[in-house]
């Protein structure tokens, strides 16, 4: 059963940290932390665990690693004092003034309760594998809040017409070279995918739910999010999930030059390879916006572009019941479900959706396990 929270605050644009989704409809409970520089302190439960995310802004001048560590330790301690039942406290320290997704943090850390003593004992910002210090990485683009609803080809009229026709026939046509629209409708499997990972509040809750449900999924990862929260990416891989490329910045690719498109995909590949030792096989363009150049670059980099058959619009502030009905209505063999890892309602309905799939004899899994129809 989901806990009832009494202290609610609207989730502002900035609360998404590096996740470029503006989700002002979400209400999250807040922690009262009396420390200077606290921008927000929110927490959430998946019915089993409670996780908090504390965001602080600090003066970049003189913000040495040890200073950032001390601030993070104080914030984590204050979070547990305010809410002792927390299972984990995650921290993001940004240079003032805090501008949300426009900049990368200076410091991040994830502190599960069973490792709190180890974190609090640190005297230097090293020797703890759930801590990240920005080595000076900067972003060229600000992430764009591009919401997916359906794959949207952009470019010549002939290309758009051909792609739309292919999408309409995707369940019968099978896999196109380098592109997946649909799995095999004659096999009882459906792919479960999550866009925009990782998120310092939602990702640990989602991974815990998937573990309890014994379900594997594909996470389409934004490179800059992965760079700032590498430990969550490692958690995904260790749990047996599959990683996909969702660009480095989360920008609409068709407006970029061929070289800029390549750098978006290549930079995300490089970040994930540095963290996990493996280059992803799959790619999903933000917002489903793509062009001949986007498909071409992805193929040249050895990436298969993955679209979807089922987007219930979990980002749109739907009530859990509505989201559940939308998911069930489109659940089908060979389907590809698109969800996001930063939505409260998604956490609420996921157990029900997994149960419904099982009742229908469908196995939910990653894209890589999805048999493809033959053309």
What does this protein structure show overall?
The chain is α/β, with parallel strands linked by helices and 375 residues long. The protein is built from eleven helices and 17 strands. It has helices at residues 65-82, 116-120, 157-168, 170-173, 202-213, 223-228, 230-238, 258-276, 292-300, 320-330, 344-359; strands at 8-10, 27-29, 38-45, 50-58, 88-95, 107-112, 131-133, 152-153, 179-180, 189-197, 218-221, 242-245, 282-283, 289-290, 304-306, 336-340, 363-365. The strands form four sheets. Strands 9, 10, 11, 12, 13, 15, 16 and 17 form an eight-stranded parallel β-sheet that branches. A five-stranded mixed β-sheet has the order 3-4-5-6-7, with helices on both faces. Strands 1-2 form a two-stranded antiparallel sheet. A hairpin with a 4-residue loop joins strand 3 and strand 4.
Which consecutive residue ranges, at least 5 long each, have pLDDT under 50?
Answer: 1-17
Beta strand % = 15-25%
> Oligomerization state of this entry?
single chain
* Major sheet details: 8 strands, parallel
N-to-C CA distance: 45 Å
Class from helix and strand fractions: alpha/beta
């Amino acid at each position: 059963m989901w806990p009832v929270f009494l202290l609610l605050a609207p989730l502002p644009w900035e609360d998404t940290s590096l996740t470029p989704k503006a989700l002002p409809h979400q209400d999250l409970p807040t922690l009262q932390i009396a420390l200077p520089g606290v921008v927000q302190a929110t927490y959430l439960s998946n019915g089993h665990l409670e996780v908090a995310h504390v965001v602080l802004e600090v003066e970049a001048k003189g913000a040495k690693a040890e200073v950032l560590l001390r601030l993070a330790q104080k914030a984590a301690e204050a979070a547990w004092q305010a809410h002792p039942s927390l299972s984990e406290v995650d921290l993001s320290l940004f240079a003032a003034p805090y501008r949300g997704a426009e900049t990368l943090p200076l410091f991040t850390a994830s502190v599960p309760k069973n490792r709190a003593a180890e974190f609090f004992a640190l005297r230097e910002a090293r020797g703890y594998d759930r801590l990240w210090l920005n080595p000076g990485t900067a972003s060229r683009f600000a992430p764009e809040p591009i919401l997916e609803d359906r794959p949207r080809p952009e470019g010549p009229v002939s290309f758009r017409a051909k792609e739309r026709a292919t999408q309409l026939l995707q369940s019968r046509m099978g896999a196109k070279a380098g592109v997946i629209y649909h799995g095999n409708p004659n096999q009882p499997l459906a792919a479960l995918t999550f866009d925009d990972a990782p998120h310092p509040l939602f990702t640990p809750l989602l991974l815990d739910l998937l573990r309890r449900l014994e379900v594997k999924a594909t996470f389409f990862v934004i490179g800059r999010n992965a760079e700032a929260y590498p430990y969550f990416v490692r958690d995904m891989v260790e749990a047996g999930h599959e990683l996909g490329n969702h660009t480095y910045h989360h920008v609409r690719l068709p407006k970029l030059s061929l070289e800029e498109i390549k750098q978006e995909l290549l930079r995300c590949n490089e970040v994930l390879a540095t963290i996990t030792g493996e280059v992803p096989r799959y790619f999903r363009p933000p917002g489903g916006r793509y062009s001949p150049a986007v498909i071409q670059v992805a193929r040249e980099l050895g990436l298969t572009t993955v679209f979807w058959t089922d987007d219930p619009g979990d980002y749109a502030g739907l009530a859990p019941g509505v989201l559940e009905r939308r998911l069930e209505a489109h659940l089908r063999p060979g389907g590809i479900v698109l969800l996001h890892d930063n939505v409260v309602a998604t956490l609420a309905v996921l157990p029900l959706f997994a149960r419904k799939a099982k009742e229908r004899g469908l196995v939910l899994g990653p894209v890589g396990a999805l048999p493809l129809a033959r053309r």
